């Protein structure tokens, strides 16, 4: 049985699933800033965290907007599941 998708998926739209050399990659589009990028849940979280040097473009939505998104994601998954919670303090 597959795991449930986390709350971070509520903030992106699946643009197109791609298959490159037999490997499935998904392309997502941020609902807040309209930026399209490849990756799964980790890339979505890094997009909102705005961590430099991770290879993911920062979300350009207003700070209040993406901070509310991060709070909802963190509350929905819990700190034990979120490997990045130490970044947000």
The count of strands amounts to 3
The global form is: globular
Cα radius of gyration in angstroms: 13 Å
Query: Which class of secondary structure composition applies to the elements?
Result: alpha+beta
Q: Describe the strand arrangement of the main beta sheet, using strand numbers.
A: 1-2-3
How much strand?
15-25%
Helical element count? 3
User: What percent of the residues sit in helical stretches (DSSP H or I)?
Assistant: 25-40%
Order of helices and strands: EEEHHH
Low-confidence stretches: 78-89
The average pLDDT value, as a whole number, equals: 76
N- to C-terminal separation? 33 Å
Characterize the main sheet: 3 strands, antiparallel
Helix and strand topology:
Elements (H helix, E strand, L loop, with lengths): L11 E9 L2 E8 L5 E3 L2 H9 L13 H15 L7 H4 L1
Walk me through the structure:
It is a single chain. The protein has 89 residues and is an alpha+beta fold. 31% of the residues lie in helices and 22% in strands. It is built from three helices and three strands. Strand 1 and strand 2 form a beta hairpin. It is globular, with a radius of gyration of 13 Å. The protein starts with 11 loop residues before the first strand and ends with a helix. Mean pLDDT is 76; it is low at 78-89.
